Amino acid sequence: MAVTLPDAHSEHLLRELAPQVLGAMIRRFRDFAAVEDAVQEALIAATVQWPREGVSDNPRGWLIQVASRRMTDHLRSEAARRRRETAAVRECIAIDSEPEQDDTLILLFMCCHSALTPSSAIALTLRAMGGLTTAEIANAFLVPEATMAQRISRSKQSIKASGVPFRLPTDQERAERLRAVLHVLYLIFNEGYTSSVGPQLQRLELSREAIRLTRMVHSLLPDDGEVAGLLALMLLTDARRAARTGADGELIPLTKQDRTLWDRKEIAEGIALVSAALSKGSIGAYQLQAAIAAVHDEAARAEDTDWPQILALYDLLKRMSDNPMVTLNHAVAAAMVHGPSAGLELLTALDADGRLTGHHRLDAVRAHLLEMAGDHQAAIAHYQTAASRATSLPERNYLITQAARLREQPS
Amino acid sequence: MKYILMMNCPKTGYDTFGAWPKKDIQAHIAFMHGFNKALREEGVLVYAEGLADPKQAKLVRAGKDGVPITDGVFPEAKEYLAGYWIVDVEGPEQAYAIAARASAAPGPGGAPANIPIEVRQVMSAAPAEWQ
Q1: Are A341 and A399 in a shared domain?
Q2: pLDDT bracket for residue A299 (50, 70, 90)
Q3: Which residues of A, range 157-216, sit inside 8 Å of B by Cβ?
């Protein structure tokens, strides 16, 4: 939508309606790429017409009608060329009124389908769900617009080629498909949750869009604890954004952040969401991660952090998911409660596990715990190894600074 | 994640290339054009550039008051960057596969030149939360 929108209300309405209209159109016409062009034209028509003539009483129906007309025109000219007019046009005359919620959700399930690689699913979701233009997505990921446009177009082709039907997943596949959707939304949020890399505004857009989409899924599936958990996790993490980096983009660890900069409104909403979800009983990994984030956010000072509670939550999380990153954070929590040697012992299990071998986080956590234990020489060595393995510039800078700090500290 | 794929050559590399038969030079250039186009269409190309002849290279240092001091003397064994690609891919294996395609660019007689490509990750990953 590279157009100037009349006002915030209209823009908000169009963003909400875009995926519904796109979903309804795909249901009807099946051709993702052609349908998207028609929907874009309808959205542009709306931005021109609505400010002049007022918003239609049924904006969604209006957009579908305009998009369908464009699509019919498109099919007619295509069909004339290919001598298949009758069949193609007949298929698209009837305009029904399917439940719009389903269409939005089905579209999201499609965009996050496992036939796509993570980066393709991310790009397609951002584009199809109405939030960002191709140029904005390209900017956020620091790739040229042409490359991003190709990535999105290939994603649509993959979806078409995979033959995924346009309907909600069956009960058997539902849990797994929803997990894939939540994972894509989580990845989008994480990409955006780094104000120190890339143009800040565009990155911020990614987090906002992830939160907007997760909020939307939550309103469509209010009883799903994991959807609520993910939304809470995003809000509770996003709340610390302003405190997370310094003036030059340097990372500020949780313990050193200026907590007065944390967003109290987001924290309150996140805590309410995760508390409600947990009280319903079906506990999942996102809810537990949100609960851990909530415990951090509730502490007015770092030293007030309720580490025993965090440790208990990591115990639960570890039982639920076989993720070495969870074990790593569990080790930190164990060190905070029982002392550094308890944490270092847990790291030994990770060495044997092998999945984090060569990963900078394993060295970084070991360095941190060795420093806690007073073994500065070993801590320096591990901070340096971690720095040499880092793939993020702010993290690398943070780690070499830690090593330098210890070297210059009188022991 | 992003990777830079660097194609290096000796100082005389450009002369060697220039001395190939015309059809081999043309085949190599056509390959590079097609390769870059393919990477763009695959949705992975961030940036690609070829660099001018290393004989034009200068070493620059700041002199007094930051005035540049240029110097053309390089160690004999030095390899020069001839060109590079930056790609945005799912992981290292995909970067290596793309590097292998570049390495197989046609050389004299149209056979794969097997040019060594140095693959390095760009430090553009998102930083994690630190406690």
Answers
A1: yes
A2: very high
A3: 190-191, 193-194, 196-198
**Of the candidate ranges A111-120, A173-182, B63-72, the one whose mean pLDDT is the lowest:** B63-72
On whether residue B128 sits in a domain, the answer given is no
User: Domain of A364?
Assistant: 327-411
Inter-chain touch A197–B124, beta carbons under 8 Å: yes
Q: Do A255 and B131 touch (CB under 8 A)?
A: yes
Whose CA is closest to A260, among A235, A272, A244, A243? A243
- pLDDT score, position A1: 39
For residue A24, give the nearest of A80, A107, A87 by alpha carbon. A107
- List the single residue in B with minimal CA-CA distance to A122: B90
Q: Is A154 on the interface with B (CB under 8 A)?
A: yes
What residues in B contact A151, CB-CB < 8 Å? Answer: 43-44
Q: Which residues of B touch A119 (CB under 8 A)?
A: 88, 90
Overall number of domains in chain B: 1
Residue A210 in domain: yes
Does residue A267 lie within any of the structural domains?
A: no
Residue A131 and residue A197 in one domain: yes
- The boundaries of the domain holding residue B85 are 2-121
Number of structural domains (chain A) is 3
The identity of residue A61, as a single letter, is G
A391 pLDDT band, cuts 50/70/90, is confident
CB-based burial, A113-140: b 16+ in 10 Å, e otherwise:
beebbebbbbbbbbbbbbbbbbebbbbb
- Give the closest of A151, A196, A251 to B130, CB-based: A251
pLDDT reported for residue A3: 40
The CATH number assigned to the domain holding B65 equals: 3.30.70.1060
Does ipTM come in above 0.90? no
